[in-house]
Amino acid sequence: MGDEDRERDRRVVEEFRVGGGVVGGRHAGRTLLLLHHTGARSGVERVTPLTFRTVGERWVVAAGNGGLPANPAWYHNLLADPEVSVEIGTEAHRVRARIAEGAEREELAAHFRAAPSRFAAFEEALERVIPIVVFEPR
After folding, report:
1. What is the pTM of this model?
2. What is the pLDDT of residues 68-78, one digit of tens each?
3. According to its record, what are the GO cellular component terms (predicted)?
4. CATH number for the domain that contains residue 123
């Protein structure tokens, strides 16, 4: 992630917090959470805004990485340390991240395909399987 991307994320995080979880611009109308995670190699604490879905009691994100061929850095950070926190609206939650597999992954991916998003286009264009991450409260 470059400096320009970090600056864009910083502005989204600021707007998210000022607006109680609501942001405009390219994220207008999307349901966002803020993922607090630590760089697996750098050890640097990061906050990344991510689009999510609530499915039952689960908070779910797709690691689509904007349609790029590699998984996003935050995904690799979760593999190294799944004990993280998320901000949803005005509340912070300690959660454990896990990767959905098999039938659960397919069920959750269907929620992303059915919603207005670029998930289906990314899935079709990419050779990698887009990981679906489930955040469960601790």
Report:
1. 0.92
2. 999 999 999 99
3. plasma membrane
4. 2.30.110.10
